[in-house]
Each structure stands twice: as C-alpha cells, then as structure tokens.
C-alpha cells in the first residue's frame, strides 16, 4: 500500500493512494485515524492526487541517520568525514528539519555549499529497543524517499554534523510510505538523484555497507525508537552542491520520487 499524508483545503489527514482501475490515474482515499497509532478505515472521501497537496508522510519525534554507508561515498567524502568504521555512524536530524515532497529547501545564508544526499528511509511501526536482527522486520512500518540536505562547509568547519544537517527544511520526505515490502526487497532498489533533470547519483540499496537489520538493531541498542520515527540508511556516491533556484529530485524504484527547489529564506 501507499499511505500519504496530505492537505486538501484546510484539512490535513492520511490517505490511501491507489490508481483508478479504468484510467490509471492516481487517487487518494481519506483514512480515518492515524495508521501508526491504531486501527484505520476508509472514510469515504476520494480525490485526485493532483488536486491535493502531499505533505511529509509522517511527523517523527526524531530522524536517525546513518553516515558513510556506501563504499564509493566514503571514498569521495574521506577528506570531510574520514574513513569507514566497523559500526554504523549515527547522527540525528531534528523533527523541525522534516519537510514535504514539493516544499522548498531553504539555503542558509551562513553556508556557501549546500549538498543533496538521496537516501532510502524506513519508518518505525511501534516503540522498540534492543531489537535483534531477526526481529527488525516486525518494527518496520514501511519505506519512503529522503534527501539528507547538508551544509557541507559547516560540516567540515564544525567537526561534527548537528548544525550542518539540522537546518529547517533539510530533510525532505515522501511522497508517501510504501508498505508490504520485505527487507530483502527494500535492500535491492535503484536510487537516482537529479539536479534540474541531470543525473548526479545512481546507486542501489544492495550496496549498503551496513544492512537494514544491522542499522535498526544497532540504533535501538542505545535509543528507543517510537512509532513514526524515521531512519535514513545512507547515500551513494555522487553527492554535490545545489544553488538557489535549482530543483533536486530523488527517486527510488517502486517508492516514488520527491522534488524540492532550493530557495533563499528571504
């Protein structure tokens, strides 16, 4: 299933995205309740997907991110972040960094280099901690597309990543949460990032150094994950800067794409 969070007029809610059986056009059917917090059912309202505004598919309490998780990306970034490590490199983005699939990304005036990083993200289904590898499948609600926007010059200057990764709008998510994928399926998807239509990143989630079970097991060994929390799994090689006015698109096979234009906050 594809579960979106959307706005229609002044109303915000969750909906099931499905293609019309006759036309193939995508529609969203409103759901009652919250898909992560209890039982939901169809509310009877239906609209064309093009007539609503897609929002970030979830509002997490935190976004947990994994750095240096593709070998080629480790190599291209070794002068900034160092070599790879035996354990996953973990950092956080605040919930205020989360934005939607068509929303602007704001270029901070204090940064001279803002980079894109297309990533596979997973959404946690229930409170969990100390999850063994074999149980990780039981705590994943679904998967979505993410862009780990980074002020690269500040990352290098600060020697740690909080400010560089944490600006408002620096975590576009969407366009929806795709459920029903096995971990094995999620770990063999094509990922592509373009800037103004030009391909900048091409990779597959099969190239992850630390796989999804290892990531969730490791993170949950020292922090409790809550329903709706988002875990970013890392980015492949090809990261680079975007300027104000440019549009970044991240697409993942079977999950959809998110498009965000970089703008000045002024």
Automatic annotation (TrEMBL):
Keywords: Isomerase, Metal-binding. Residues 62-263 form the Fumarylacetoacetase-like C-terminal domain. This is 2-hydroxyhepta-2,4-diene-1,7-dioate isomerase. GO terms for molecular function: acetylpyruvate hydrolase activity; isomerase activity; metal ion binding. The keyword Isomerase applies. GO terms for biological process: carboxylic acid metabolic process. The keyword Disulfide bond does not apply. Residues 1-57 form the Rv2993c-like N-terminal domain. It holds the Pfam family FAA_hydrolase. InterPro entries: Fumarylacetoacetase-like_C, Fumarylacetoacetase_C_sf, Rv2993c-like_N. Coiled coil: none annotated.
